[in-house]
Write a structure and sequence with these properties.
Blueprint: E1 2-3, E2 18-19, E3 29-38, E4 46-55, E5 58-65, H1 74-88, E6 95-99, H2 102-117, H3 126-138, E7 143-147, H4 153-171, E8 191-192, H5 198-234, H6 240-247, H7 254-264, H8 281-284, E9 288-289, E10 294-295, H9 298-304, H10 310-323, H11 333-337, H12 350-377, H13 386-406, H14 419-426
Parallel strand pairs: 2-7, 3-6, 6-7
Antiparallel strand pairs: 1-8, 3-4, 4-5, 9-10
The structure holds zinc ion.
Length: 454
Amino acid sequence: MRIFTDGSAIKIPVEVIQRGTTQPDEVATTITIAATEERQREEEASSAVGVIIDQRHQSDALEFKTPRRVGTDRQAAELFGILKVIESTDQNQAIKIELASKDTVDLLSNKIQDVEDKGYLGIKNADIIKKVMTGARKRKRKTFIRIIDEENQEAQRRRQKALESAKRGLKKGEEMGPENQDDPRYRQSGMKLASMTQSLAYKMIRAQKMKNYQRQNRTNLNLAKAKASMKTTHHKNPTDKEIWKGIRSKDFSRAVRYFLMMTTHDGYMVGSNWERPGYKPELQARARCRKCQITETMEHILTECQCTGQEVIWNQAKMLWEMKGYQWKKLDLGDILTCALPRFKKNRNTVGDSRFYRILISESARLIWMIRNDRVINERTDEATDKEVQNKWVELMNRRLTLDRDMMHQKFEKKALSTKLVLSTWKSVLLNEETIDEDWTKKNSEVLVGIAPA
Ligand SMILES: [Zn+2]
């Protein structure tokens, strides 16, 4: 079982670098690697590697100075040499790599599983080791590694030759240019639960907890906003439980309930949620509102943004709410999240007016969010016009009115809406209301909200 992976866990399960104690006869290419280092305790510490590629009738010698970004010691040089070999030799050919350094052979054969399982924590030259393993896994044929046989004169001769190459390499300038990125598809990531020590597990669990804690913090922040708005606007002090209950109100459509729940949890990818390490710059740029040039928040989108959307929509909502006989007050995020809670009593129509308010505010807010998504996600450079936004809103409100009528049907049994509830909800906000039947719900004719399309 692998936990805490970043989603790039190995997908191509290949046996990789193997210890070549029993070397298959069919491997025709032997690669001998030897490294040297100098001035190890000084600023200008450097290392280099010599590579001898021995095939049946041919022997090639290569030398590389270890790039500083890879490392400056002998092992970094050996790993860099191995990487060069893995990248430059025929991918369809099995190879044997031999070197005199027991520690490097041991690392890539016996220890590598453990190193990967522990997520490379505290491992020297981790980056280059990852690149070597990525390269080895990409190869279609096996890559063997072994310690140079001290008794074998031929092998000792190759080693000497490699060492001379390495010494020449030290005099060279280092290779320029970026290394190939290690391919995440081949990288082992995360940790195996079984091999985790308690302290490692503890560290990772704490990191996870921190994430949850930050999420909880954002939720608490929104709940605090909700409470502040309820206190300022309606002089009420709802509990968290009452706020959540309001968000689950059955008067909301399913889509609206989800929208309010996600917004309260700050669950949408908005603003600082994009500013995470590991996100590409073009994604991180999404944190900002392009028009207003500030970090976007849900509150900005719903109540402040200069893009065509929120202002037009709230103006329309204001018109309907004033038709109901109430004064409009500019909303903030807390008002939107708590729109199911206030009771409006002015017209002796408390249930209908309060129900209309929660529908009006929540549907309007969600439409603003949808219009914003259409602009940002589809990377539209042109904004919707005022007229388009107005018409979308009128269409939405009419749809919501029709939904109420449909929900009166007996097939909904207990969930069916009563005539009284529907009539009281839409009372005073219909188009040409004085000319339509008192119980318009039973008629087949169309009934619309009191604002015509632009
Ligand atoms: Zn904006």
